[in-house]
């Protein structure tokens, strides 16, 4: 068979991933979601475990909106009206009224001139960054930026001398990068600088100081023909923290020129988007392959996302944000009180540092057996000594849920001692 040799090589690659500890393995299948009852939150049932409901502590749905009936109703109504799929890319009559309404609302939410939506936030980052990186551009990127930013830079085929990877959250090192760019500009080799960072770093829950980054950009801006542009992927920030849910820009009291985020985490739906100036968005609509040649999210998804955005700006949204902040504080204080080490911060990502691969795997398995779903990050995915279990708190968790998880963690403390 033509695939026989390739199959063998691919299976050898999979085996190597397993030996290195990087194999994700067989995916768990959720077969049913049970609604909250008697003080408990949602319970998730898995294939092969029909009689056991699990607490999901690894969900990006920070506000629990993915199961909100108002969003489901909005999506259903829109799908009946416009169909279940767009049927085309945007410029070939694949643009529906809900797409336009959502883009307008997102631009207003972020106080930007314009917005465009993508099929995912990953596609948005690649579809925004790559078209903006010219032959005389230099990109400055945090060393712990998400894979989508790393691959966006690769997609743009940026050579080594046109990228500067600065130490995590280190604005002093970022300044060194800007000084390097300035030297290149004086040689006629750099016209445009793009500083790109995650807002919230998904494996750690810490976040970039956008106020300081923007201040640095403004300080150096006049040294370049096209200026210094700041870009943030705040997919884990928007809707997850900040008094009004505007994420890292709100928490740090900073701003950026280009903001990318997702509709699929705190907003509970699907898709990604970018907000910026009218000129940037107009240019990207013409040049971004991930937008031009790919179908958008469905009209139903756009309507559900619009409902989520409106809900976030309402009294109900404020209540959800307050509950999420309260749940986060309760859980973090509880984990520390038991004696575990965590990475501090106000974001609902709670990284529990185990600092040992074997113990991390044992603790993840023990939590699973107690009905708790979490993600373990082990070497070589993270450096030796930084092995972590990532918990993600949600407004949908009840106090009883979190207290149960804390009690289990207390019971299992012996594993890491």
Report on this model:
- The protein is α/β, with parallel strands linked by helices and 417 residues long.
- It folds into two domains: 11-56 and 315-416, Aspartate Aminotransferase, domain 1, CATH 3.90.1150.10; 69-312, Type I PLP-dependent aspartate aminotransferase-like (Major domain) (Aspartate Aminotransferase, domain 2).
- The protein contains 15 helices and 15 strands.
- A seven-stranded mixed beta sheet has the order 4-10-9-8-7-5-6, with helices on both faces. A four-stranded mixed beta sheet has the order 1-2-3-13, covered by helices on one side.
- The model has no long low-confidence stretch (mean pLDDT 96).
């Amino acid at each position: 068979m033509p695939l026989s040799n390739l199959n063998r090589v691919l299976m050898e690659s999979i085996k190597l991933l397993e030996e290195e500890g990087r194999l994700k393995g067989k995916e768990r299948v959720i077969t049913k979601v049970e609604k909250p009852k008697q003080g408990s939150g949602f319970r998730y049932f898995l294939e092969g475990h029909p009689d056991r409901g699990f607490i999901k502590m690894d969900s990006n749905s920070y506000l629990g909106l993915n199961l909100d009936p108002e969003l489901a109703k909005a999506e259903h109504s829109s799908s009946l009206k416009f169909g279940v799929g767009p049927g085309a890319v945007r410029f070939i009559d694949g643009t529906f009224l809900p797409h336009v309404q959502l883009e307008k609302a997102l631009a207003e939410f972020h106080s930007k001139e314009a917005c465009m939506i993508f099929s995912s936030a990953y596609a948005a980052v690649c579809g925004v960054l790559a078209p903006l990186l010219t032959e005389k551009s230099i990109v400055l990127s945090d060393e712990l930026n998400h894979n989508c930013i790393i691959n966006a830079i690769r997609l743009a085929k940026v050579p080594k001398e046109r990228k500067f990877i600065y130490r995590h959250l280190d604005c002093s090192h970022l300044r060194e990068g800007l000084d390097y760019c300035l030297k290149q500009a004086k040689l006629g080799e750099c016209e445009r600088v793009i500083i790109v960072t995650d807002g919230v770093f998904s494996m750690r829950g810490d976040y970039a100081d956008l106020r300081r980054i923007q201040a640095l950009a403004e300080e150096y801006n006049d040294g370049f023909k096209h200026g210094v542009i700041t870009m943030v992927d705040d997919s884990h920030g928007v809707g997850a923290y900040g008094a009004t849910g505007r994420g890292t820009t709100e928490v740090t009291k900073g701003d950026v020129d280009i903001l990318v985020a997702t509709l699929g985490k705190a907003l509970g739906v699907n898709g990604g988007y970018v907000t910026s100036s009218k000129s940037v968005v107009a240019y990207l609509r013409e040049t971004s392959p991930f937008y031009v040649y790919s179908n958008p999210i469905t009209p139903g998804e756009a309507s559900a996302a619009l409902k989520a955005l409106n809900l976030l700006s309402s009294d109900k949204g404020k209540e959800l944000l307050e509950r999420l902040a309260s749940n986060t504080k309760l859980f973090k204080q509880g984990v520390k009180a038991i004696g575990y080490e965590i990475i501090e911060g106000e974001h609902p990502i709670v990284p529990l540092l185990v600092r040992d691969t074997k113990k991390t795997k044992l603790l993840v398995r023990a939590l699973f057996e107690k009905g708790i779903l979490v993600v373990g990050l082990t070497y070589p995915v993270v450096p030796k000594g930084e092995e972590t279990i990532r918990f993600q708190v949600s407004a949908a968790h009840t106090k009883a849920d979190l207290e149960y998880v804390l009690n289990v963690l207390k019971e299992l403390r012996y594993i890491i001692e």
